[in-house]
Amino acid sequence: MVVSLHLQVTSFAFFVLILCLYCSNIVYNVVAMKSEVVDVSDFGAVGDGTADSSKAWNFVCSREIENGVRVIFVPENQTFLLHPVTFNGPCKAKEIKFLIMGRIISPVSPKTWEGLDQAKWLTFYKVSGLKIKGSGEINGRGWGWWNQSCRDHPRLEGCTSLAPTAMIFESCKTSSLSQVRLINSSQTHVLIRGTDGFIVDHVKITAPETSPNTDGIHISSASNIFIRNSIIGTGDDCVSIGDHTTNIHISHVKCGPGHGISIGSLGRSGNFVQVQNIRVNTVTFKGTTNGARIKTWQVGKGYVRGVMFENLFFNSVKNPIIIDQNYCNVRGACKELETGVQIRDVVYRNLWGTSSTEVAITLNCSRSVSCTGLLLQSIMLKSSITGKNVRSSCINAHGAAIGVVQPAPCF
Ligand SMILES: *[C@@H]1O[C@H](CO)[C@@H](O)[C@H](O)[C@H]1NC(C)=O
Ligand SMILES: *[C@@H]1O[C@H](CO)[C@@H](O)[C@H](O)[C@H]1NC(C)=O
Ligand SMILES: *[C@@H]1O[C@H](CO)[C@@H](O)[C@H](O)[C@H]1NC(C)=O
Ligand SMILES: *[C@@H]1O[C@H](CO)[C@@H](O)[C@H](O)[C@H]1NC(C)=O
Questions:
Q1: Distance between CA atoms of 101 and 95, rounded to whole angstroms?
Q2: pTM above 0.70?
Q3: Which residue is closest in CA terms to ligand 3's atom 1?
Q4: Which helix (H) or strand (E) holds 190?
Q5: What CA–CA distance (Å, rounded) separates 97 from 214?
Q6: pLDDT score of 61
Q7: C-alpha span between 305 and 195 (Å, rounded)
Q8: TM spans, by residue (predicted)?
Q9: For residues 57 and 98, what is the distance between their CA atoms, to the nearest angstrom?
Q10: Residue nearest to ligand 2 atom 14, measured at CA
Q11: Is 76 touching ligand 1 by the criterion CB < 6 Å?
Q12: Could you give the C-alpha distances from 136 to 73, 98, 187, 237, 280, in angstroms and in order?
């Protein structure tokens, strides 16, 4: 059954209504929910096609709740079409839970997005204690955007550089996203920004290998972020970590296809970046372009320090280990500069598997700002092509090697 709710207000109010109908089935918060008799009009929602749903949302979240928890339920076996919507906090409820068992789909093509915000689809802003879970699916139906992206079709008239990010969590403290499946976002699937304390757990993110800019998860200006037990395969980075990030932990992730896990690109606009304490542990890369990558723009300033890549397995990866401090849109087109983001104290420990290119370890640092304190320990990389050898390549990279390191380091 497809329930098409074209109005933001109606769709939101509908969730609330459904929540009410199902509240007695919800395992948790039964007491609080029983006392909630919710009617669409209770939320000031008017299905006239012009009312703003954020008002209804604000109304919901400003209502006091007995035990401080509110649950919004999306029932299984149903499909809801949602136009872009922003859930604006802060909310009075201590916790807001979305239990997504059904499917949520977006408008399908750029045409149907006309007049809508084309940069985002589902946005959660300043909602602290947000918990989204359930076995449901969030489908961005991005194909209508991919085939007119300027990156892939630069000569196409009316090509778009912008496309909606599926889920944006902005300033959502102590929140989490778990179990759901995210599919075919027109751009990044999950963006975590300006946030302290966020957990992504048991999530599956899928988009075709050829889809442009469909990062799995992008993190920027954030701290204490955990991504674990997840499967990510898209047309871009499985996870990318941007400027101003601290304490980012990625573990037990299966990555591929896609571009791998990337710290960067950093410092694009010549800004000062601070990236510290990043841990990537127990990740499998399959058929990705990169594995453990750090990439910075030459114009950038600031630092990346305290990075640990540990227990990574590569299956036919183009650049299993790569530092690219001369990152540039068009390879070779940017002149070498005096500036650069300093990369310091990076540990690569217990990494093994196969490289699909000859250079399995690339430590390509800036000639003016060297990489220091790189540690290679217990590394065993072979070619994925029988009979071929692999090697390391360094520019201005400094560090040490402990134990078996193959290919031999080039410090
Ligand atoms: C959803 O569909 C499945 C399979 O058809 C069925 O077993 C299940 O009872 C349905 N759930 C609801 C809530 O209708
Ligand atoms: C892109 O794909 C959609 C859906 O398959 C199709 O309707 C549209 O014509 C395509 N656009 C271009 C420019 O190829
Ligand atoms: C995702 O997009 C691809 C390419 O258009 C399509 O083949 C696939 O069926 C889509 N998946 C879902 C679940 O919609
Ligand atoms: C390393 O950086 C230099 C200078 O930008 C560039 O010419 C070269 O292609 C890079 N090598 C790799 C393997 O990325």
A1: 19
A2: yes
A3: 184
A4: strand 190-193
A5: 26
A6: 60
A7: 20
A8: 12-31
A9: 13
A10: 147
A11: yes
A12: 11, 11, 20, 23, 27
Q: Which residues of the chain are under the pLDDT cut of 50?
A: 1-42, 44-55
Query: CA 56, CA 88: separation in Å to the nearest integer?
Result: 10
Residue identifier of the C-alpha nearest atom 13 of ligand 2: 148
Q: Which residues pair with 69 in a beta bridge?
A: 95
Chain centroid to CA 41: 36
Which residue has 């909606």 as its token pair?
164
**Does residue 142 fall inside a structural domain?**
yes
Look at residue 107 and tell me if it is in a domain.
no
- Nearest Cα neighbor of 289 from 337, 243, 222, 237 is 237
Domain of 359, CATH number, reads: 2.160.20.10
8 Å CB contact between 380 and 408: no
What is the number of alpha carbons within 13 Å of residue 381 lying toward its C-beta? 35
Dmax (CA) for the chain in angstroms is 71
Q: What is the pLDDT of residue 310?
A: 98
Mutation probe of ligand 3 site: the residue of 103, 184, 204, 234 with most atoms within 8 A of C-beta: 184
The owner of tokens 């955990």 is: 226
The confidence score (pLDDT) of residue 243 equals 97
Q: Whole-angstrom Cα distance, residue 132 to residue 37?
A: 22
Quote the domain boundaries for residue 185.
113-406
In a domain, 242, yes or no: yes
Residue 365 token pair: 């640092």
Among 2, 143, 209, say which to mutate for ligand 3: greatest number of ligand atoms within 8 Å of CB: 143
Residues catalogued as catalytic: 259
As for how many domains the chain has, the answer is 1
Residue at 279 is within a domain: yes
Q: Are 142 and 133 in contact (CB under 8 A)?
A: no
